[in-house]
Design goal:
Elements (H helix, E strand, L loop, with lengths): L3 H11 L7 E4 L12 E2 L9 E2 L3 E4 L1 H4 L8 E9 L14 E4 L11 E4 L10 E4 L9 E2 L10 E3 L7 H9 L4 E4 L4 E7 L3 E2 L10 E2 L2 H11 L3 E8 L3 H14 L2 E5 L10 H7 L3 E5 L3 E2 L5 E4 L5 E5 L3 H19 L8 E5 L10 E11 L2 E6 L16 E5 L11 E6 L7
Parallel strand pairs: 5-6, 12-15, 12-16, 13-14, 16-20, 18-22, 21-23
Antiparallel strand pairs: 1-11, 2-10, 3-9, 4-6, 4-7, 5-8, 17-19, 19-20, 21-25, 22-23, 22-24, 24-25
Helix pairs in contact: 1-7, 4-7, 5-6
The structure holds ligand LQZAQKY5 and molybdate ion.
Ligand LQZAQKY5 binds next to helix 4 and helix 7.
EC number: 2.10.1.1
Pfam families: MoCF_biosynth, MoeA_C, MoeA_N
GO molecular function: metal ion binding; molybdopterin molybdotransferase activity
Length: 408
Amino acid sequence: MITVHEAHEIITATVTPCGPAVAAPLRQLRGRVLAEEIRAGFAMPRFTNAAMDGFAVRHNEIAGASEDAPVTLPVSQELAAGALRVAPLAPQTCARIMTGAPVPEGADTVVPFEQTSGFESAAVEFYKAPKQGANIRHAGEEVVAGALLAAAGTRVTPAEIALLATFGVASALVRPQPRVSIITVGDELRLPGEPIEPLAIYNSNLPLLETCVEAAGAEVTQTRQLRDDRQAIREALAAAIAESDVIVTAGGISTGEFDFMHEALDALGVEQRFWKVAQKPGKPVYFGATAAGKLVFALPGNPVSALVCLLEYALPALALMQGATPAPKFTATLDEPFPADRKRYRFLFGATQIENGEIRCRISQQTDSHMLTALREADCLIEAEASPEPLPAGSLVTCSWLPWANAF
Ligand SMILES: Nc1nc2c(c(=O)[nH]1)N[C@H]1C(S)=C(S)[C@@H](COP(=O)(O)OP(=O)(O)OC[C@H]3O[C@@H](n4cnc5c(N)ncnc54)[C@H](O)[C@@H]3O)O[C@H]1N2
Ligand code: MOO
């Protein structure tokens, strides 16, 4: 049996990014991973413009203005945002100007209309002189041409969408989405909505794995619910290997009499990279690869074990295939003792809260590997090395966010 750390190393050494990069339009970029860096094609602001609705002036012409001694200037032009041609400001005049409109040559200050007699008159009284240069947004003050907007490997969020749009970028190169088949196995399984016999159970792994894989930016190409049938399992695996980059299975990977997954994978020429990791839950997890580089994650059937192994091994692999860095882990302080396992690395779901700027976590009450209700209110997965004693409250532990915690 290998350690959790060795399992991670084997996956990292095996997985390569999907290629070649493909172009995707702006509206389809969210959740995809950039395969190119995006740089500003021009400086921002593009041109010097007004930050307030008011009047563009030469500061020295209104310098002494006050309520008691207003300065009056005639209006020589009107500039709205979208004005494409702008005349220089004639001396001893002002220009009506709206927020975002280009500042005419010669003007160096914008006076908000509230500090004047307003937009109605043809000659404007100025009651106050703001600082020279006030209310002007200068060309290039935010971003210089060529500045990095988003690095390759960035997973696109609404922030990148808006940045790209700001610079007129309508499409970008992204990594192709890994194509994933999901197979669940068990005579006892029924799909939600189907009638159910007293000794059967509903299939929770299929929708759980499918939604997690989709949320990780991959494309689920097929989902199967199979009986514990050698032939059916072998055929479904062969089809899945043919049509997808990654195969995720759940169930039938332990050593029970009807656990056919391992022999089917062997028979199809999938090379085992590991089987069984010293961890709880999820000990029987299997990882293998075909000669063509197709990856197989055969997860244990217990729902908590399946999810833990998906989060720990399959989702980081999907991130690497997309050219992204797997989600970083964080450290939290235990609110209560953590029941470490004597021999195996222990994973338990937990819930965090922030107290005095510190992340604290408590452990889900249901801790067995068939108890998916551990997910109620959980937002993280807590992990700890094997230890003969429980970790005392107040210890620091490593955690990872559940992918849907803090989700947009
Ligand atoms: N003698 C031993 N028995 C078991 C061992 C062992 O080392 N020696 N390992 C245990 C561990 S650890 C786990 S985890 C399970 C994993 O077994 P399998 O991967 O073969 O999974 P199954 O036997 O098919 O199912 C286990 C459990 O999960 C339920 N299940 C399966 N699929 C689903 C699904 N899609 N949705 C909901 N629930 C599902 C299934 O009904 C079983 O209760 O083996 C232990 N046994
Ligand atoms: O360690 Mo198993 O994965 O009991 O659920």
